[in-house]
Amino acid sequence: MYRKILITTDGSAVSKQTACAGVAFARQMGAEVMALYVAAEYQYPVYVEIIPPSYPLEEEYVETMIRTGEEHTGPIMRAAEQAGLKHSAVTAFADSPALKIVEIADKHNCDLIFMGSHGRSGWGQLLLGSVTNKVLSHTLKPVLVHRLIQEPAA
Length: 154
Known about the structure:
CATH architecture: 3-Layer(aba) Sandwich
Structural class: alpha/beta
Low-confidence stretches: none
Strand content: 15-25%
Largest sheet: 5 strands, parallel
CATH topology: Rossmann fold
């Protein structure tokens, strides 16, 4: 049914559990896995005309975020490899993670976006899960939201 599944991660405990469930789902489908980590765009300090010495240069920031992306997508890649699935990982940069997720899914012809949710209701739902809600409202692709009933241990 699905040939290529985009599994998103932000490195949180929720997204780590979601990633495990995503790979298991992909294995059941026999689908390829693409892991995605979206880092914030580099922000120049706007309050000064000269970049302070302690502020990272853009190149340093990009290198650090690429390493961070590899750390966060690494477990997904290892799990997909162990499951015998074709797999790849992408670290992307954007100020709006939701829009970048939709863009990457389209660009790489993913059939499904697999994302996590904290499973909160009421006011908690309003405060969290905004990325998932934005993805749901900006894509025509199917989005499977893996809902955690209980917060994972840190």
